[in-house]
Structures are given as C-alpha cells and as structure tokens.
Amino acid sequence: MKVVRSIEKLKNARSKMEGSLGFVPTMGALHEGHKVLIEEAAKKNDNVAVSIFVNPAQFGPGEDFKTYPRDEDADLAFCEKAGVDLVFLPSEKQLYVEPRRVFIKVGRLADCLCGESREGHFNGVVEVLVRLFNLVSPDSAFFGEKDYQQLLIVKSMVEDFHYFLDIIAVPTVREKNGLAMSSRNRKLSFEERNAAASLYHEFKMVREKAETARFDRRALPVEFIEKEVAEKLNSKHPEIKIDYIEIRNEDTLEKNRFIVNNSRIFGAIYISGTRLIDNLHIGN
Ligand code: AMP
User: Among this protein's residues, is 281 annotated catalytic?
Assistant: First the structure.
C-alpha cells in the first residue's frame, strides 16, 4: 500500500497505476461502514484509493472540527488490512490554495435537512470533492447512503460538471443495535449508543406503518408521522435533542403531503452534544 501526502507524489503514484481506480473519500476514524465502501470499490475496480482528510470547509463555526475523531495510525493499518492500494493524506494548505478565488454553491438540494441546519456545509463538501476528484482522477467513487443528502448532491455535481465518473451508492452499515455506524459514535458511551439507535427503530416502525397503510389503501399524512416520531423519541429519551425529523421525496428532497412510493424519512439528533444523522426508505 502506498501512502502519499503531497499532490506531486499522488500524481506520480496515479500515473503508474494500471487498470481502473475506485475511490473512497473519507474523513478518517475509519469503521466497518468505510470498510464496506472499500470492499465495493475493490469488487468493481483493479485499484482502490482512499483519501483521509477532515475537511475544514464543511464545518461551520461552533461545530466539531477540532474535536472530530482523528487516528491516523489506526486508519493506515485499517486500510492496509482492507487491501487498499493508495492512501492520500493531503494537508489543508495543499488542497486549498490561498487566497481562495473561486467558490462553489450548491443549489436547492442544500436548502433543507442538514443543509438548512448546517449553513454552507454542502458547499464545503463539494469544494473538497472537486479538488479530490480532479487530483485522484478515479473511474468510480463510492458514497454511503448514511449521508443520503450528500449522496444526492454528489450525484448532481458529477452530472452538472460532466465528470467522467460513476458515483456508486452503498447501503448504510449498522451496529448490531441498529445504530448507523459513524466516526462520531466513538464519542458516545454504551448507553448513549443504545439511546441513539432508537432513531432507527422509530424509522423502522414508520416503514411498517407505511406498508400497512399501503395494503389498506390509506393515505398517511407526512406531518402527523413526523410529529409522532419526534414525540416518541422525546418521551423515551429526553437526553436526545432533535434537530429534525422529516419525510421527503428521496429523488428531489421535496416534501409531499402524504407518504408516497419514493418517500424517505430523515433524522438528525444531538446526544450529549454529538450530532448524528440517519435515514430510511419508507416507500414501496
Ligand atoms: P466520512 O468519513 O464520515 O466523511 O464518510 C466517508 C464515506 O463513508 C461517506 O460516503 C459516508 O456516507 C460513508 N459512510 C459513513 N458511515 C457509513 C455507514 N454507516 N454506512 C455506509 N457508508 C457510510
């Protein structure tokens, strides 16, 4: 496995590579979710590259950029074991040439959910991906459905900017208790992880409800279900602070009045200051 920290070394390693390249961009503190992305990349490509970079541009003021979990040694051992060919560990200075002169703004897909709570977050995500895609020059890149809004925005970015690049979506990998795996889970105690898992359990109940309603040909009003989920979470786990619980169209992120075939439920919560997100397809 080659580990490169400079753009020059990356270019050199990339030019020597033979065959196709699958790319997994990450912010490190790697876990089983990342591993599945790496495995998928390996299945579909001759080579796999992983980038590890905690991207300051996607953190807002007062967010956890400074305390985001970082463990380079463990991450490199993880990549080696997972059979990664190339790891890119860029520095902020190299990626973001100062002074910054050109900026990217994500359109309507960033107006809701995490884009609304974290102003500028998705602009920062696209800013780093433009740089990474141009530098790594992969044939395909792998993204988790855990960050579903991000996945939609990355797909749009690749289409709008005419990248010759396939974006492959990978289903959310979960802990045994149902909690979506996340680097931020490291900050939680055992009890907090179990409490956080209730978000997914409530989502699954909504999915069941939607199935029954479909069978009975009943329309389920979105607003009512969103409120019900929030109330249940609040009463079961007062330690959880809800940012949003919303049901939206999973292709456009627009809101429907009733649950429809392509509905998806999205949630963001804080537990002891740590922000976690999850989502689940609840349509047909
Ligand atoms: P991150 O390091 O959190 O920026 O994530 C890097 C990539 O891994 C993103 O495409 C995430 O969506 C994906 N990812 C993170 N957690 C999971 C998970 N539990 N299941 C599937 N993909 C994930």
Answer: no
